[in-house]
Design brief:
525 residues; Rossmann fold; 60s Ribosomal Protein L30, Chain: A; seven-stranded parallel β-sheet; 22 strands; globular
């Protein structure tokens, strides 16, 4: 009988579900790291919220661990690379607390608009400072939503219901989806310039870290009010403090912070700052939902091998796994390849399955492609949540199956239609089981992708390869492999260069300045 440890407080019903499914369960909360390390080898599964940290030392001690379930969305408290290296499946519950978090953001917006916390404290203190707390109406104001996915779209709809003008920035939000939810799709700079209130609903990635910095704050309306119930790190707290002190920002409501638990923070004590201790998902309904969901998912995995909402493992049945596994790796690479090159809203996705692969169960492959496509911006996306996230953003996905009539017996082609252009990339699996990119933008190529790849579009002219090698060599960057495909002699060409160490922005700029180069971008896999 498998055994699970519930290490954080959650609904008692979660333990009941494990027992009903034939899983032994212990509920031991409040363990520190050393206490957890001492007992973790007894368990096949670990169910957590956000308090328990599955750090490398804990995971190294978890010699029997098969699955970790996070009752919630973010998995910041779980060391994903270590878990993956040890073969531990990490699951989350991506949709259990969406309404609750969106409602908390709206509650914070009301509190900001009417100075409710300060007015409450003043009145409790026996003061009657009616003239001090002059608020503003929400009706007719412009609400800027940064990140209009599952939670953001709910917050946006609540803003529409309050008769606010709602504008949204989200690279994956299509114009059709924007119309459907009643918002105006705009660029980030428009949100900053036009919004009276700004609410953040984006994951924390390298692209979104400090998305609200000193430069962004300077572009905002004077007196703008900002709400963050998403992730700490989206706002530069030092710059925010300065903007609050100068009056550029009229008020801020924060449920999340750069460092948590936030026992000390430079923003604490400021009159125009409202703070709550990461309460976004803290309602009875949400906690019940995520606790039940994580228990069901973990029990299904431990008893039947079914995988749902896995962050680091495809959702594939035991029967399909052997044949699908290499194609799943290819599908994720195709998605990540296209996703990292796409900077405008995706309107449509077409996936062609040609030859032998078309005879397989392609649903997991489509999910893997969409997950890879969205992952550069949405860090929490996985194979299960990706189709729903694509649908929320109005991205149409179609599949085409056909027999092979070309040079390859089996391959997958991904074609994207964006607001600005169309692009395609195709790949196959060779006899060694490794994925290969075989076509980019209609140009044939044969490339195996490394963790770091330079994608270069250039004109096919003498001297390009030598010039590129000179730049990389001057900066100590070793070329692991180089593959070039061209449309025709002297025409457009595509180069995929696997490099051993990361290229800096300065190196990329030098490459872009080479006369044969039209575009260069560093991709990570």
């Amino acid at each position: 009988m498998p055994k699970v440890l519930i290490a954080d407080k959650m609904s008692p019903r979660a333990a009941e579900i494990f027992k009903e499914r034939g899983v032994e369960v212990d509920v031991i909360t409040g363990l520190d790291r050393d206490e957890l390390i001492k007992i973790i080898d007894q368990y096949d599964g670990l169910a957590v919220r956000s308090s328990t940290k599955a750090t490398p030392p804990v995971l190294e001690a978890a010699t029997n661990m098969k699955v970790i379930g996070r009752a919630g969305i973010g998995v910041d408290n779980i060391d994903l690379p270590t878990a993956t290296a040890k073969g531990i499946v990490v699951m989350n519950t991506p949709f259990g607390n969406s309404i609750t978090t969106a409602e908390h953001a709206i509650a914070m917006m009301f509190a900001l608009a009417r100075d409710i916390p300060e007015a409450n404290a003043s009145t409790h203190a026996g003061k009657w400072e009616k003239s001090r707390f002059m608020g503003v109406e929400l009706t007719g104001k412009t609400l800027g939503v940064i990140g209009c996915g599952n939670i953001g779209s709910i917050a946006a709809s609540r803003g529409v219901g309050l008769k606010m003008k709602v504008i949204a920035f989200d690279p994956f939000l299509t114009p059709e989806r924007a119309i459907e939810i009643g918002v105006e799709k705009v660029e980030l700079e428009d949100v900053l310039k036009r919004a009276d209130f700004i609410t953040l609903h984006t994951p924390l990635t390298e692209k979104t870290r400090n998305i609200i910095n000193a430069e962004a704050l300077a572009k905002c309306k004077k007196g703008v009010r900002i709400i963050n119930c998403a992730r700490g790190g989206l706002i530069d707290e030092k710059a925010l403090k300065e903007a609050l002190e100068s009056g550029q920002v009229g008020g801020v409501a924060l449920d999340v912070f750069e460092e948590e638990p936030a026992k000390e923070n430079p923003l604490f004590g400021m009159e125009n700052v409202i703070c709550t201790p990461h309460l976004g998902a803290s309602t009875a309904e949400a906690q019940e939902n995520v606790a039940l969901q994580v228990a069901e998912q973990m029990a299904d995995f431990l008893m039947t091998g079914a995988v749902n909402n896995a962050i680091n493992m495809p959702s594939i049945s035991a029967e399909d796994a052997p044949r699908l596994r290499p194609y799943v790796a290819l599908a994720e690479q195709l998605g990540m390849f296209a996703g990292q090159l796409t900077e405008s809203a995706i309107e449509g996705v077409e996936i062609e399955y040609v030859g032998e692969v078309s005879e397989l169960n392609v649903a997991p492959l489509t999910s893997a492609i969409i997950a890879g496509l969205l992952r550069p911006l949405l860090s929490d996306v996985n194979m299960v949540s990706a189709p729903a996230m694509a649908k929320e953003r109005g991205i149409s996905v179609s599949e085409v199956k056909r027999d092979s009539k070309g040079a390859f017996d089996s391959y997958i082609r991904l074609s994207l239609k964006t607001e600005r252009q169309q692009r395609s990339v195709a790949g196959t699996v060779f006899s060694d089981g490794k994925p290969r990119i075989i076509q980019v933008k209609g140009i044939n190529i044969n490339a195996e992708l490394a963790p770091r790849v330079l994608y270069i579009t250039n004109t096919d002219a003498p001297g390009f390869i030598g010039s590129l090698g000179t730049v990389l060599g001057a900066h100590g960057i070793n070329i692991a492999s180089f593959q070039l495909g061209r449309e025709k002699p002297g025409g457009d060409a595509v180069s995929l260069v696997n490099i051993d160490n990361e290229a800096s922005k300065e190196v990329l700029k030098e490459i872009e300045e080479l006369k044969q180069v039209m575009q260069v971008k560093q991709l990570f896999f």
